[in-house]
Amino acid sequence: MGDDDCSKAYIYDPGSCQVKGYVDINSDKCYFKSDGTGNESYNKNLQINRVRYYDLDVNNTRALTEYGWCNFTVNNEDTTWIRKLSNSTLINQINIPGTHDSGTYAIGDTGLNLFGVRDVYGRTQEETVATHLKNDSVELSSSDEYHDYNHGTVTTIKIARFDTLEEVYKAIAKFSVLNTDTKKFKKEYNKFFYDKKGLFPTLNETRGKIILLTRGNWKYNATSSIGNELNIPDMGECEIYPVKNDQKYQKECYPHIHNSNSNVLVQDNYNLSTGKWKLVEEYLEHKIPIVYNDIEYSMYNDLTNSFYDVKNATALTVDFINIQGFAGGIGIYNEANKMNNNLSKYIGESKKIHNHWFILDYPTNDLVRKIRNSMTPYSLEKRNEQINIIQIDDFVVYTDLDYYIESKEDACLQLRNQYLTCSSNYLKAGYKCCRNQYAKVDKVDNVGNWAKEKGEWCGIGYERCSFEVLGFHCCSSINPDYGIYCNHVRITLIKITN
Length: 498
Fold this sequence. Notes:
By secondary structure, the chain is α+β, with helices and mostly antiparallel strands. It has 4 domains: 69 residues, no CATH class; 149 residues, no CATH class; 126 residues, TIM Barrel; 107 residues, no CATH class. It has 9 helices and 30 strands. It has a 7-stranded mixed β-sheet with strand order 7-21-20-17-16-18-19. Strand 1 and strand 2 form a beta hairpin. Helix 7 crosses helix 8. The protein is globular, with a radius of gyration of 25 Å. The chain starts with 20 loop residues before the first strand and ends with a strand. One of its GO terms (molecular function) is phosphoric diester hydrolase activity. This is CBM10 domain-containing protein. It comes from Neocallimastix californiae. InterPro entries: CBM10/Dockerin_dom, Dockerin_dom_fun_sf, PLC-like_Pdiesterase_TIM-brl. Keywords: Hydrolase, Repeat, Signal.
């Protein structure tokens, strides 16, 4: 570590140090030096193990906190969520949150909010779905040399080699980084990609591979291509929505289908600076016509209906919510925040969204998770690692060990009640949720609200219930008949046997 004040053990809320985030301490021992030497300090008086940190020693996995240098835990939940999905899931059935340059978005976990920490630990999405929607061509002068010709400018990746899928994934996310130097890699990078035909393969076919979806044909070398084409129809004339009494202009604004991908519906109004959220909301609400081969189809035409039919597994909607250009005079960042807040509120109102990819600017971690969890309920496979913890009645269940969760579709899991139970963060910290949701709040911190029951701390009313970490929404009733089923949906804990 360096010699500045923030890297030394000035542990009592050092005024010259900036709080960088929060970590989960996994031991009651902290130290005066990051290598674990020097006198020990103890945090046994902590009521929870989630604390602020000011600096990190990545090599020793210790964080500088007001208690000293403490061992901390890295939460991999946000990078392992695809493991929960059934192998039979098609990639278009996953509601993917993304940015404009890449159709995937890797977020920092709730314990470590710094992107730098995520990068150090390689905290990008470890599983399959790495889609890319840029409109650039790729050429190689040899099989281990990469160039990206972006509007006449040579761009390459600042990386010495590709040895792992992780390195290739990171390189894809940096296709727009300008660098005129040629780079050579130790391994031909096409080996990392899913290379079979079929625009939307299953997760079973693609585990451990990168799925590359491209606009146009990307050449790997002079004789072969890489990735599968997912072409975006030409749009951009729509600048104001709606415009009454001008049907021809309105038609330009409606979502389009590209001739080469008849099962993919796209909204890409990148010049729309007035009324874009209204257009997006009508798009989500099935209240807008679509255009295919320059023909307008009404909002309830069979073709339009096919993209909203939850039984149609082969359809995909791509929704570019990003902001282009002037952005109504308030700036792209501020306009993007408005769009993102509207989308977050919309999903938070228990909306079920079918086969939908959202491409955004400046998405927050919370919005990314909401999009990810907004898909139709799915069965969860048993996994090898402990990732999710839930509480049913007064019992804490570790769903990744001896049990798995099975859901059957409809009704209450699509509804939301923010007071049903408390956040899974309490459970991960070793505490239970309060049985009385109206318990008096005795303590408030960044985790949530706390009360005492029978002399022990417990978590109360929080924004999300514990089932949301599993991809489900919360039931609408407060006490749904013994707590594990309600209305037409039942959540069943099934014991796994040999």
